[in-house]
Design a protein that fits this description.
It contains six helices and eight strands. Helix 1 links the parallel strand 3 and strand 4. An eight-stranded mixed sheet has the order 1-2-4-3-5-6-7-8, with helices on both faces. It starts with a strand and ends in a 9-residue tail after the last helix. It has one domain: Alpha/Beta hydrolase fold, catalytic domain (Rossmann fold), CATH 3.40.50. By secondary structure, it is α/β, with parallel strands linked by helices. It is about 30% helix and about 25% strand. InterPro entries: AB_hydrolase_fold, KANL3/Tex30_Abhydrolase, NSL3/Tex30.
């Protein structure tokens, strides 16, 4: 198996870091998606739910890119209140990944946790994503439901999966025709209690859309 490919991608906000993992197997009958995963504010791509999702998606035939965004490489805890610079940097990174050999034809799935879920939703239409996975989507700041970010989620324009903890202080979005919501009992915002179960929900949802392989019974 090929070792992970590590790269730096220059953006208008400084370099971002990418680690690309090739699939552990090819998936007959599936389209073998490119899954681009990113972190939340103050976090990293080593979050348990992200790592578990990476590993299980590769087992099902996906190529996975783990992206440390430019603001985190620069040592900042958050991307700032203006979403424009973060979105610009993020789209630069994803487009560069798509330009790498063998990845341009793979269906694109954007995924992130918390703030990373927000940027994935905001950029999905522009980047031509087939689907979005939003882990711990922060519907509103804790204790401030009037500051809803629901419009960001609905604007993704493609099928989306939301996985939130039942006790998440950032709130839980409602499902709709294009939004599947999995609520994890006993979990809070970090989704760290049973990350493999979180990942199973993600890859099963992707498999239903032909983006990774189904588990053979």
């Amino acid at each position: 198996m090929d070792p992970p490919l590590e790269a730096r991608i220059e953006t208008a906000r400084g370099p971002a870091a990418v680690t690309l993992y090739r699939p552990e197997t090819t998936a007959p009958g599936a389209r073998n998606c490119l899954l681009v995963l990113t972190h939340g504010s103050a976090g990293g791509v080593d979050a348990p739910d992200l790592v578990a999702t990476r590993d299980m998606a590769r087992e099902r035939g996906a190529t996975v890119a783990m992206v440390t965004q430019a603001y985190r490489v620069a040592g900042r805890r958050s991307p700032g209140g203006n979403t424009g610079p973060q979105d610009e940097s993020w789209t630069t990174v994803v487009r560069q990944i798509r330009a790498w050999p063998g990845l341009g034809e793979s269906p694109l799935v954007l995924a992130g946790r918390s703030n990373g879920a927000r940027v994935a939703c905001r950029s999905a239409v522009e980047l031509g994503a087939h689907a979005v996975v939003a882990l711990a989507f922060p519907l509103h700041p804790p204790g401030k439901p009037h500051r809803s970010r629901d419009a960001e989620l609905r604007a993704a324009g493609v099928p989306r999966l939301v996985v939130n903890g039942a006790s998440d202080p950032f709130g839980i979005p409602e499902p709709d025709e294009e939004t599947t919501v999995i609520v994890r009992r006993g979990e809070r915002h970090d989704l760290a209690r049973a990350p493999r179960e979180v990942a199973t929900g993600v890859v099963d949802w992707l498999a239903e859309r032909g983006l990774v392989a189904h588990v053979e019974s």
